[in-house]
Amino acid sequence: MKVLDFPNVSYIYDFSRPEFFTRELNAANNDYGIPIPEISFSVNDAPITNLFGSDTNPVLLDWVDIAIAVYLADRVSPRDPRKHHNENWVRDFMLKLRVRSPDFWSQDDIQTDLNELLSYLTDDNWQFEFSPLLVRDRFFESQRELAFLPNSTPRVALYSGGLDSFAGAAMMLATDIESPFIFVSGATHPRQISQQREQIQRLRGLQRKGEIIHCGVKFGIKWKESEGAFQEVSQRTRGFLFSTFGAVASINSGARTLELYENGIGAINLPYDASQISAMNSRSVNPVALLRMESLAMKIFGEQFAIQNKFWSRTKGEMCSNITPELIDAVALTFSCDGFPVRAAGKPQCGVCTSCLIRRLSLSAANLSKFDIGETYLTDLTSAYAFPSFEQLRSLRAMDWQYHQINQCLTGPNPWQELAFEFPELQTIVSELVAAKGVSFEGVQNDILRLYKKYCDEWSGFSARNHLFRSASRAA
Q: What are the strands of the beta sheet with 38-44, ordered from one edge?
Protein backbone atom coordinates (compact mmCIF):
# COMPACT_ATOMS: atom_id res chain seq x y z
CA MET A 1 0.00 0.00 0.00
CA LYS A 2 1.22 3.48 -0.84
CA VAL A 3 1.52 5.41 2.41
CA LEU A 4 0.10 8.90 2.72
CA ASP A 5 2.99 11.32 2.84
CA PHE A 6 1.51 14.81 2.67
CA PRO A 7 1.63 17.74 5.12
CA ASN A 8 -2.15 18.09 5.33
CA VAL A 9 -4.80 16.56 7.54
CA SER A 10 -5.01 12.90 6.46
CA TYR A 11 -7.84 10.38 6.45
CA ILE A 12 -7.68 6.64 5.76
CA TYR A 13 -10.96 4.74 5.28
CA ASP A 14 -11.73 1.05 4.90
CA PHE A 15 -14.84 0.26 2.83
CA SER A 16 -14.27 -3.50 2.66
CA ARG A 17 -17.51 -4.34 4.53
CA PRO A 18 -20.93 -3.80 2.91
CA GLU A 19 -22.88 -0.90 4.45
CA PHE A 20 -20.13 -0.02 6.95
CA PHE A 21 -16.87 1.86 6.78
CA THR A 22 -14.21 2.70 9.32
CA ARG A 23 -11.70 5.50 9.74
CA GLU A 24 -8.27 4.14 10.58
CA LEU A 25 -6.17 5.63 13.31
CA ASN A 26 -3.33 7.82 12.12
CA ALA A 27 -1.43 10.64 13.75
CA ALA A 28 -2.77 13.35 11.48
CA ASN A 29 -6.46 13.03 12.28
CA ASN A 30 -6.22 11.51 15.77
CA ASP A 31 -4.42 14.62 17.04
CA TYR A 32 -7.61 16.63 16.52
CA GLY A 33 -9.53 14.51 19.01
CA ILE A 34 -12.01 13.44 16.30
CA PRO A 35 -13.83 10.18 17.17
CA ILE A 36 -13.14 7.27 14.84
CA PRO A 37 -16.31 5.15 14.94
CA GLU A 38 -17.54 2.43 12.65
CA ILE A 39 -20.04 4.28 10.46
CA SER A 40 -23.01 2.66 8.76
CA PHE A 41 -24.59 3.93 5.55
CA SER A 42 -27.32 2.98 3.14
CA VAL A 43 -27.71 3.25 -0.62
CA ASN A 44 -30.36 1.87 -2.94
CA ASP A 45 -28.94 2.18 -6.43
CA ALA A 46 -31.13 -0.54 -7.97
CA PRO A 47 -33.15 2.08 -9.95
CA ILE A 48 -30.04 2.85 -12.05
CA THR A 49 -27.91 -0.30 -11.85
CA ASN A 50 -30.85 -2.62 -12.51
CA LEU A 51 -32.60 -0.29 -14.92
CA PHE A 52 -35.18 -2.22 -17.01
CA GLY A 53 -33.89 -5.47 -15.47
CA SER A 54 -30.62 -5.11 -17.36
CA ASP A 55 -27.39 -6.95 -16.56
CA THR A 56 -25.06 -4.21 -15.44
CA ASN A 57 -21.38 -4.31 -16.32
CA PRO A 58 -19.47 -5.09 -13.08
CA VAL A 59 -17.21 -2.10 -13.74
CA LEU A 60 -20.27 0.19 -13.59
CA LEU A 61 -21.32 -1.37 -10.28
CA ASP A 62 -17.82 -0.65 -9.00
CA TRP A 63 -18.09 2.93 -10.26
CA VAL A 64 -21.19 3.53 -8.13
CA ASP A 65 -19.49 1.98 -5.10
CA ILE A 66 -16.42 4.18 -5.59
CA ALA A 67 -18.53 7.32 -5.98
CA ILE A 68 -20.47 6.52 -2.81
CA ALA A 69 -17.25 5.87 -0.91
CA VAL A 70 -15.71 9.14 -2.11
CA TYR A 71 -18.82 11.10 -1.10
CA LEU A 72 -18.98 9.46 2.34
CA ALA A 73 -15.28 9.99 3.03
CA ASP A 74 -15.57 13.64 1.99
CA ARG A 75 -18.61 14.18 4.17
CA VAL A 76 -17.18 12.76 7.40
CA SER A 77 -13.70 14.31 7.07
CA PRO A 78 -13.58 17.85 8.50
CA ARG A 79 -10.89 20.12 7.15
CA ASP A 80 -8.33 21.18 9.77
CA PRO A 81 -10.07 23.76 12.01
CA ARG A 82 -6.88 24.95 13.72
CA LYS A 83 -5.37 26.89 10.83
CA HIS A 84 -6.25 29.79 8.57
CA HIS A 85 -8.92 28.87 6.01
CA ASN A 86 -6.59 29.13 3.02
CA GLU A 87 -4.09 26.80 4.69
CA ASN A 88 -6.43 24.17 6.08
CA TRP A 89 -8.45 23.57 2.94
CA VAL A 90 -6.51 20.61 1.48
CA ARG A 91 -6.92 17.07 2.86
CA ASP A 92 -5.24 13.76 1.98
CA PHE A 93 -7.33 10.62 1.50
CA MET A 94 -6.60 6.92 1.23
CA LEU A 95 -9.67 4.79 0.47
CA LYS A 96 -9.55 0.98 0.61
CA LEU A 97 -12.30 -0.67 -1.41
CA ARG A 98 -13.28 -4.16 -2.51
CA VAL A 99 -14.41 -4.11 -6.14
CA ARG A 100 -15.40 -6.62 -8.82
CA SER A 101 -12.73 -5.50 -11.26
CA PRO A 102 -9.67 -4.46 -9.22
CA ASP A 103 -7.28 -4.82 -12.18
CA PHE A 104 -9.33 -2.37 -14.21
CA TRP A 105 -9.47 0.26 -11.48
CA SER A 106 -5.76 -0.13 -10.69
CA GLN A 107 -4.72 0.88 -14.22
CA ASP A 108 -2.51 3.96 -14.23
CA ASP A 109 -4.65 5.96 -16.69
CA ILE A 110 -7.88 5.23 -14.79
CA GLN A 111 -6.23 6.16 -11.48
CA THR A 112 -4.82 9.34 -13.00
CA ASP A 113 -8.15 10.49 -14.47
CA LEU A 114 -10.04 9.65 -11.28
CA ASN A 115 -7.53 11.43 -9.04
CA GLU A 116 -7.30 14.52 -11.26
CA LEU A 117 -11.08 14.86 -11.45
CA LEU A 118 -11.51 14.54 -7.69
CA SER A 119 -8.64 16.92 -7.03
CA TYR A 120 -10.23 19.49 -9.35
CA LEU A 121 -13.56 19.17 -7.52
CA THR A 122 -12.22 19.18 -3.96
CA ASP A 123 -8.59 20.45 -3.97
CA ASP A 124 -7.72 17.30 -2.01
CA ASN A 125 -5.23 14.50 -2.68
CA TRP A 126 -6.85 11.11 -3.31
CA GLN A 127 -5.36 7.60 -3.26
CA PHE A 128 -7.13 4.27 -3.68
CA GLU A 129 -6.31 0.69 -2.81
CA PHE A 130 -8.47 -1.86 -4.67
CA SER A 131 -8.82 -5.52 -3.74
CA PRO A 132 -11.18 -8.26 -5.04
CA LEU A 133 -14.79 -8.36 -3.90
CA LEU A 134 -15.20 -11.97 -2.80
CA VAL A 135 -18.96 -12.13 -2.28
CA ARG A 136 -21.92 -10.56 -4.01
CA ASP A 137 -23.41 -7.82 -1.89
CA ARG A 138 -26.28 -6.80 -4.16
CA PHE A 139 -29.52 -8.78 -4.27
CA PHE A 140 -30.22 -7.83 -7.86
CA GLU A 141 -26.90 -9.23 -9.09
CA SER A 142 -28.62 -12.61 -8.96
CA GLN A 143 -32.24 -11.48 -9.29
CA ARG A 144 -33.54 -9.56 -12.30
CA GLU A 145 -36.74 -7.58 -12.30
CA LEU A 146 -39.09 -7.16 -15.23
CA ALA A 147 -39.56 -3.57 -16.32
CA PHE A 148 -40.95 -1.72 -19.32
CA LEU A 149 -38.30 -0.71 -21.84
CA PRO A 150 -39.09 2.33 -24.01
CA ASN A 151 -39.54 1.68 -27.73
CA SER A 152 -36.84 4.19 -28.61
CA THR A 153 -33.56 5.29 -27.04
CA PRO A 154 -34.40 7.63 -24.17
CA ARG A 155 -32.83 10.94 -23.24
CA VAL A 156 -31.32 10.78 -19.77
CA ALA A 157 -30.93 13.83 -17.52
CA LEU A 158 -30.01 14.56 -13.93
CA TYR A 159 -32.92 15.90 -11.89
CA SER A 160 -32.29 17.55 -8.51
CA GLY A 161 -35.71 19.03 -7.82
CA GLY A 162 -34.25 22.52 -7.88
CA LEU A 163 -35.60 25.37 -9.97
CA ASP A 164 -33.00 24.91 -12.73
CA SER A 165 -33.70 21.22 -13.23
CA PHE A 166 -37.46 21.81 -13.29
CA ALA A 167 -37.25 24.73 -15.73
CA GLY A 168 -34.81 22.89 -17.97
CA ALA A 169 -36.85 19.70 -17.96
CA ALA A 170 -40.03 21.61 -18.77
CA MET A 171 -38.36 23.23 -21.77
CA MET A 172 -36.79 20.01 -23.06
CA LEU A 173 -40.04 18.05 -22.72
CA ALA A 174 -41.99 20.75 -24.54
CA THR A 175 -39.40 20.94 -27.31
CA ASP A 176 -39.06 17.19 -27.83
CA ILE A 177 -42.46 15.55 -27.42
CA GLU A 178 -41.45 12.24 -29.02
CA SER A 179 -38.47 10.99 -27.01
CA PRO A 180 -38.80 9.10 -23.75
CA PHE A 181 -37.02 10.87 -20.88
CA ILE A 182 -35.34 9.29 -17.86
CA PHE A 183 -34.75 11.69 -14.98
CA VAL A 184 -32.16 10.56 -12.43
CA SER A 185 -32.24 11.92 -8.88
CA GLY A 186 -30.20 11.40 -5.77
CA ALA A 187 -31.68 12.21 -2.39
CA THR A 188 -30.71 11.95 1.28
CA HIS A 189 -33.88 13.39 2.81
CA PRO A 190 -37.53 12.27 2.54
CA ARG A 191 -38.63 15.85 1.81
CA GLN A 192 -36.36 15.94 -1.25
CA ILE A 193 -37.67 12.62 -2.52
CA SER A 194 -41.29 13.66 -2.02
CA GLN A 195 -40.94 16.95 -3.86
CA GLN A 196 -38.91 15.43 -6.69
CA ARG A 197 -41.69 12.93 -7.26
CA GLU A 198 -44.37 15.59 -7.08
CA GLN A 199 -42.56 17.70 -9.66
CA ILE A 200 -42.15 14.71 -12.00
CA GLN A 201 -45.89 14.07 -11.74
CA ARG A 202 -46.55 17.63 -12.88
CA LEU A 203 -44.16 17.17 -15.80
CA ARG A 204 -46.00 14.00 -16.79
CA GLY A 205 -49.10 16.12 -17.22
CA LEU A 206 -47.64 17.70 -20.36
CA GLN A 207 -49.22 16.67 -23.64
CA ARG A 208 -46.50 14.59 -25.27
CA LYS A 209 -45.96 11.12 -26.74
CA GLY A 210 -42.75 10.03 -25.06
CA GLU A 211 -43.02 8.66 -21.54
CA ILE A 212 -41.26 10.07 -18.48
CA ILE A 213 -39.41 7.71 -16.12
CA HIS A 214 -38.02 8.79 -12.76
CA CYS A 215 -35.10 6.91 -11.20
CA GLY A 216 -34.53 8.00 -7.61
CA VAL A 217 -31.44 6.83 -5.72
CA LYS A 218 -31.71 7.06 -1.94
CA PHE A 219 -28.51 7.18 0.07
CA GLY A 220 -27.28 8.46 3.38
CA ILE A 221 -25.24 8.02 6.55
CA LYS A 222 -26.79 6.54 9.66
CA TRP A 223 -25.46 8.99 12.24
CA LYS A 224 -25.55 8.82 15.96
CA GLU A 225 -26.32 12.27 17.32
CA SER A 226 -22.80 12.69 18.76
CA GLU A 227 -21.16 11.63 15.47
CA GLY A 228 -23.21 13.91 13.24
CA ALA A 229 -21.39 17.00 14.44
CA PHE A 230 -18.17 15.90 12.73
CA GLN A 231 -19.09 16.65 9.14
CA GLU A 232 -17.42 18.64 6.39
CA VAL A 233 -20.00 21.15 5.22
CA SER A 234 -18.44 21.85 1.81
CA GLN A 235 -19.17 18.34 0.43
CA ARG A 236 -17.46 19.04 -2.89
CA THR A 237 -17.89 15.45 -4.16
CA ARG A 238 -21.68 15.59 -4.53
CA GLY A 239 -21.36 16.49 -8.21
CA PHE A 240 -19.16 13.45 -8.84
CA LEU A 241 -21.69 11.19 -7.11
CA PHE A 242 -24.74 12.53 -8.97
CA SER A 243 -22.95 12.51 -12.33
CA THR A 244 -22.00 8.88 -11.71
CA PHE A 245 -25.64 8.01 -11.03
CA GLY A 246 -26.67 9.74 -14.25
CA ALA A 247 -23.91 8.24 -16.38
CA VAL A 248 -24.64 4.68 -15.20
CA ALA A 249 -28.36 5.14 -15.88
CA SER A 250 -27.59 6.56 -19.31
CA ILE A 251 -25.30 3.68 -20.24
CA ASN A 252 -27.73 1.03 -18.94
CA SER A 253 -30.62 2.56 -20.91
CA GLY A 254 -28.67 2.53 -24.18
CA ALA A 255 -28.15 6.28 -24.31
CA ARG A 256 -24.73 7.75 -24.93
CA THR A 257 -25.38 11.20 -23.52
CA LEU A 258 -26.15 12.51 -20.05
CA GLU A 259 -27.91 15.87 -19.93
CA LEU A 260 -28.09 18.30 -17.05
CA TYR A 261 -29.86 21.61 -16.71
CA GLU A 262 -27.92 24.25 -14.77
CA ASN A 263 -27.73 27.96 -15.47
CA GLY A 264 -24.33 29.33 -16.45
CA ILE A 265 -23.92 31.61 -13.43
CA GLY A 266 -24.33 28.66 -11.08
CA ALA A 267 -22.33 26.26 -13.26
CA ILE A 268 -19.27 28.51 -13.62
CA ASN A 269 -19.73 29.79 -10.06
CA LEU A 270 -17.22 32.63 -9.89
CA PRO A 271 -15.84 33.61 -6.44
CA TYR A 272 -18.01 35.81 -4.24
CA ASP A 273 -15.03 37.43 -2.54
CA ALA A 274 -11.32 37.82 -3.13
CA SER A 275 -10.38 35.19 -0.52
CA GLN A 276 -12.08 32.33 -2.37
CA ILE A 277 -9.66 30.39 -4.53
CA SER A 278 -9.76 27.14 -6.50
CA ALA A 279 -12.50 24.75 -5.31
CA MET A 280 -13.54 26.91 -2.35
CA ASN A 281 -16.45 27.66 -4.66
CA SER A 282 -18.22 24.52 -5.80
CA ARG A 283 -17.19 23.15 -9.19
CA SER A 284 -19.79 20.36 -9.33
CA VAL A 285 -21.11 21.28 -12.79
CA ASN A 286 -18.37 23.62 -13.94
CA PRO A 287 -17.74 23.06 -17.69
CA VAL A 288 -14.18 21.89 -16.93
CA ALA A 289 -15.43 19.36 -14.36
CA LEU A 290 -17.97 18.01 -16.85
CA LEU A 291 -15.27 17.59 -19.51
CA ARG A 292 -13.12 15.62 -17.08
CA MET A 293 -16.07 13.53 -15.93
CA GLU A 294 -16.90 12.85 -19.57
CA SER A 295 -13.33 11.70 -20.25
CA LEU A 296 -13.39 9.35 -17.24
CA ALA A 297 -16.78 7.96 -18.29
CA MET A 298 -15.51 7.12 -21.78
CA LYS A 299 -12.57 5.20 -20.32
CA ILE A 300 -14.83 3.32 -17.92
CA PHE A 301 -17.47 2.61 -20.56
CA GLY A 302 -15.04 1.97 -23.40
CA GLU A 303 -17.15 3.90 -25.93
CA GLN A 304 -18.10 7.44 -26.86
CA PHE A 305 -20.04 9.25 -24.17
CA ALA A 306 -21.04 12.89 -23.69
CA ILE A 307 -22.15 15.01 -20.74
CA GLN A 308 -24.01 18.13 -21.82
CA ASN A 309 -25.22 21.11 -19.83
CA LYS A 310 -27.84 22.54 -22.16
CA PHE A 311 -27.98 25.92 -20.38
CA TRP A 312 -24.39 26.70 -19.42
CA SER A 313 -24.53 30.03 -21.32
CA ARG A 314 -27.93 31.16 -19.99
CA THR A 315 -28.93 32.81 -16.73
CA LYS A 316 -31.41 31.24 -14.36
CA GLY A 317 -33.79 34.10 -15.16
CA GLU A 318 -33.67 33.20 -18.85
CA MET A 319 -34.39 29.57 -18.02
CA CYS A 320 -37.37 30.55 -15.86
CA SER A 321 -38.79 32.85 -18.52
CA ASN A 322 -39.32 29.84 -20.81
CA ILE A 323 -41.30 27.66 -18.40
CA THR A 324 -44.48 26.61 -20.20
CA PRO A 325 -47.69 28.27 -18.91
CA GLU A 326 -49.28 25.05 -17.66
CA LEU A 327 -46.30 24.46 -15.33
CA ILE A 328 -45.67 27.94 -13.95
CA ASP A 329 -47.60 27.34 -10.73
CA ALA A 330 -45.44 24.25 -10.06
CA VAL A 331 -42.45 26.56 -9.48
CA ALA A 332 -43.51 26.61 -5.82
CA LEU A 333 -42.74 22.86 -5.61
CA THR A 334 -39.06 23.40 -6.41
CA PHE A 335 -36.35 24.05 -3.84
CA SER A 336 -33.07 25.93 -4.07
CA CYS A 337 -31.84 26.64 -0.54
CA ASP A 338 -28.38 25.49 0.54
CA GLY A 339 -29.94 24.32 3.79
CA PHE A 340 -33.10 22.73 2.39
CA PRO A 341 -35.24 21.66 4.11
CA VAL A 342 -35.00 24.41 6.68
CA ARG A 343 -36.81 22.99 9.67
CA ALA A 344 -39.48 25.61 10.22
CA ALA A 345 -43.17 25.12 9.61
CA GLY A 346 -44.13 26.37 6.16
CA LYS A 347 -40.68 27.88 5.54
CA PRO A 348 -38.51 25.31 3.75
CA GLN A 349 -35.93 27.84 2.51
CA CYS A 350 -33.82 30.35 4.43
CA GLY A 351 -34.03 33.27 1.97
CA VAL A 352 -30.55 34.62 2.72
CA CYS A 353 -28.07 32.13 1.19
CA THR A 354 -26.70 32.68 -2.31
CA SER A 355 -28.88 29.91 -3.77
CA CYS A 356 -32.07 31.45 -2.35
CA LEU A 357 -31.06 34.90 -3.59
CA ILE A 358 -30.31 33.72 -7.13
CA ARG A 359 -33.64 31.90 -7.13
CA ARG A 360 -35.52 35.03 -6.12
CA LEU A 361 -33.55 37.22 -8.51
CA SER A 362 -34.30 34.87 -11.39
CA LEU A 363 -38.03 34.59 -10.75
CA SER A 364 -38.18 38.37 -10.53
CA ALA A 365 -36.25 38.75 -13.81
CA ALA A 366 -38.66 36.29 -15.45
CA ASN A 367 -41.70 38.23 -14.13
CA LEU A 368 -42.73 35.23 -12.02
CA SER A 369 -42.51 36.86 -8.59
CA LYS A 370 -46.18 36.15 -7.86
CA PHE A 371 -45.26 32.44 -7.81
CA ASP A 372 -42.41 33.12 -5.37
CA ILE A 373 -44.20 33.61 -2.07
CA GLY A 374 -42.13 35.56 0.46
CA GLU A 375 -43.79 33.90 3.44
CA THR A 376 -42.20 30.57 2.50
CA TYR A 377 -38.73 31.94 3.35
CA LEU A 378 -37.41 32.39 6.87
CA THR A 379 -36.24 35.86 5.83
CA ASP A 380 -37.83 37.68 2.90
CA LEU A 381 -35.15 40.04 1.60
CA THR A 382 -37.38 41.18 -1.25
CA SER A 383 -39.75 42.76 1.25
CA ALA A 384 -39.37 46.43 2.17
CA TYR A 385 -40.65 45.53 5.65
CA ALA A 386 -37.87 43.06 6.42
CA PHE A 387 -35.20 44.16 8.91
CA PRO A 388 -32.34 41.72 8.31
CA SER A 389 -29.32 41.54 10.60
CA PHE A 390 -25.78 42.22 9.43
CA GLU A 391 -25.13 38.48 9.26
CA GLN A 392 -28.28 37.83 7.24
CA LEU A 393 -26.98 40.26 4.62
CA ARG A 394 -23.61 38.51 4.32
CA SER A 395 -24.44 36.56 1.14
CA LEU A 396 -26.17 39.55 -0.43
CA ARG A 397 -23.07 41.69 0.20
CA ALA A 398 -20.83 39.02 -1.31
CA MET A 399 -23.01 38.73 -4.41
CA ASP A 400 -23.07 42.50 -4.79
CA TRP A 401 -19.26 42.61 -4.55
CA GLN A 402 -19.09 40.04 -7.34
CA TYR A 403 -21.56 42.03 -9.44
CA HIS A 404 -19.47 45.19 -9.13
CA GLN A 405 -16.29 43.33 -10.12
CA ILE A 406 -17.94 41.79 -13.18
CA ASN A 407 -19.74 44.95 -14.22
CA GLN A 408 -16.57 47.02 -13.99
CA CYS A 409 -14.83 44.58 -16.34
CA LEU A 410 -17.73 44.50 -18.80
CA THR A 411 -17.90 48.29 -19.06
CA GLY A 412 -14.16 48.68 -19.66
CA PRO A 413 -12.47 49.12 -23.03
CA ASN A 414 -11.50 45.41 -23.32
CA PRO A 415 -14.27 43.42 -21.59
CA TRP A 416 -12.96 39.90 -22.22
CA GLN A 417 -9.36 40.67 -21.29
CA GLU A 418 -10.43 42.44 -18.12
CA LEU A 419 -12.93 39.75 -17.11
CA ALA A 420 -10.45 36.92 -17.73
CA PHE A 421 -7.76 38.80 -15.78
CA GLU A 422 -10.11 39.29 -12.81
CA PHE A 423 -11.40 35.71 -12.98
CA PRO A 424 -8.69 33.50 -14.56
CA GLU A 425 -10.88 30.40 -14.33
CA LEU A 426 -12.85 31.77 -17.30
CA GLN A 427 -9.81 31.45 -19.54
CA THR A 428 -9.37 27.84 -18.38
CA ILE A 429 -12.98 27.09 -19.34
CA VAL A 430 -12.49 28.58 -22.80
CA SER A 431 -9.22 26.74 -23.41
CA GLU A 432 -10.54 23.35 -22.34
CA LEU A 433 -13.83 23.68 -24.26
CA VAL A 434 -11.94 24.65 -27.41
CA ALA A 435 -9.50 21.74 -27.03
CA ALA A 436 -12.15 19.13 -26.22
CA LYS A 437 -15.06 20.20 -28.41
CA GLY A 438 -13.39 21.99 -31.32
CA VAL A 439 -15.45 25.16 -30.84
CA SER A 440 -13.99 28.60 -31.53
CA PHE A 441 -12.32 30.81 -28.92
CA GLU A 442 -14.39 33.78 -30.04
CA GLY A 443 -17.65 31.86 -29.84
CA VAL A 444 -17.11 30.68 -26.27
CA GLN A 445 -15.82 34.08 -25.16
CA ASN A 446 -18.86 35.81 -26.63
CA ASP A 447 -21.18 33.32 -24.92
CA ILE A 448 -19.56 34.09 -21.56
CA LEU A 449 -19.63 37.85 -22.10
CA ARG A 450 -23.29 37.74 -23.08
CA LEU A 451 -24.09 35.56 -20.04
CA TYR A 452 -22.54 37.97 -17.55
CA LYS A 453 -23.93 41.07 -19.22
CA LYS A 454 -27.41 39.59 -18.90
CA TYR A 455 -26.78 38.62 -15.29
CA CYS A 456 -25.57 42.12 -14.40
CA ASP A 457 -28.69 43.59 -15.96
CA GLU A 458 -30.84 41.29 -13.84
CA TRP A 459 -28.91 41.97 -10.63
CA SER A 460 -28.93 45.75 -11.00
CA GLY A 461 -32.72 45.76 -10.69
CA PHE A 462 -33.01 43.22 -7.86
CA SER A 463 -35.17 44.62 -5.05
CA ALA A 464 -33.26 42.85 -2.26
CA ARG A 465 -30.26 45.13 -2.92
CA ASN A 466 -32.20 47.96 -1.27
CA HIS A 467 -31.34 46.42 2.11
CA LEU A 468 -27.65 47.01 1.41
CA PHE A 469 -28.24 50.71 0.90
CA ARG A 470 -30.37 50.92 4.06
CA SER A 471 -27.76 49.02 6.03
CA ALA A 472 -25.06 51.43 4.83
CA SER A 473 -27.24 54.40 5.79
CA ARG A 474 -27.81 53.04 9.30
CA ALA A 475 -24.06 52.44 9.73
CA ALA A 476 -23.31 56.01 8.66
A: 125-132, 91-99, 9-15, 20-23, 38-44, 212-222, 181-187, 155-158, 257-260, 306-309
Q: CA-CA distance, 198 to 416, in Å (whole number)?
A: 43
- Are residues 270 and 402 in contact, defined by beta-carbon separation less than 8 angstroms? yes
Which H/E stretch holds residue 157? strand 155-158
Q: Is the CA virtual torsion 408, 409, 411, 414 positive or negative?
A: positive
Domains of the chain: 9-140 (no CATH), 155-223+235-316 (3.40.50.620), 336-475 (no CATH)
Name the nearest CA neighbour of 94 among 12, 1, 9, 36. 12
Taking CA atoms, 225 is separated from 202, 230, 231, in Å, by 37, 10, 12
Give the closest residue to 208 by CA, choosing from 378, 86, 350, 327. 327
Amino acid (one-letter) located at 304: Q
Three-state secondary structure call for residue 48: helix
Type of residue numbered 319: M
Task: Dump pLDDT digits (tens) for 230-274.
Answer: 688 889 999 999 999 999 999 999 999 999 999 999 999 999 987
* Residues with Cβ within 8 Å of residue 108, at least 6 apart in sequence: none
Burial of 275 (0-12, 13-18, 19+ CB in 10 A): exposed
Beta bridge partners of 127: 94
Q: What gap in Å lies between CA 117 and CA 296, rounded to an integer?
A: 8
> For the chain, how many residues are written?
476
Task: Give 40-72 pLDDT, tens digit per residue.
Answer: 998 998 889 887 766 779 999 999 999 999 999
**Distance, CA of 285 to chain centre:** 6
